[in-house]
Amino acid sequence: MMAKNKAEGGILDTIKTIVWALVIAGVFRTLFFQPFWIPSGSMKDTLLIGDFLFVNKMAYGYSRYSCPFSACPFDGRLLASDPERGDVVVFRHPTKNVDFIKRLIGLPGDKIQMINGVLQINGKAVEMKPEPDFEEVMQPQGPQGLLPRCSNSPVGMGDTCIKKRYAETLPNGVTHDILQINNDGPVDNTPVYTVPEGMYFFMGDNRDNSEDSRFPQSVGGLGFVPKENLIGRADRVMFSSAGRSLFYFWTWRPDRFFKAIN
């Protein structure tokens, strides 16, 4: 009888330990840092497919999207702080129940436009400095097996895929790399977008391969993003793997471990 009671007590203790571990993990994920894995190439070369990072959820305060399954029982934001232009931000897509990661380009009241592939903010072109081309191997990337797009297409499997790279400097002095395939694509020349109050305008650094605010929601795109939808700021890549699984250690990218995100 005692052996049975000991066994039952051991099972109960194990269940309690698991429950408490889940509670602690849930609190940590809700209040402090949320893991995020990069599934697409829309933020190259700042973020690569297979980068793993933690999102700083304290940066902008908390909304209902801060909780798993959007379960926080309040509207608006608590302990709110405003993001800065140039931040790399994880947010909830306004019409799709998925998290996106993009760079914050337009603040409330800004006028944003693209002319021949050059970003215009409030009627002034941002500074763009040519940098060495971005090169990668033409091969399937990540678990989805995505193929990169190249400015030197057509490119055979195993050959070098090239994109033009520029250092773009925003009005507040934030400088970051962007990639371009050409400067006459469908979102390289746009109308003027005026960012409404309480909204933000986001773009991917891989300018010709990004679903972002240049695509209005009326055509199924991202459009403007409400402040409430911000989840947190991406500050540092913790781990990175170029393979289809994290267990393929020969595809790990040690040079990206603990890399700061600019």
Automatic annotation (TrEMBL):
This is Signal peptidase I. Its main location: membrane. The chain crosses the membrane at residues 18-38. Residues 12-237 form the Peptidase S26 domain. It is a single-pass type II membrane protein. Keywords: Hydrolase, Membrane, Protease, Transmembrane, Transmembrane helix. It comes from the Bacteria. Belongs to the peptidase S26 family. It comes from Thioclava sediminum. The lineage of its organism: Bacteria, Pseudomonadati, Pseudomonadota, Alphaproteobacteria, Rhodobacterales. Its EC number is 3.4.21.89.
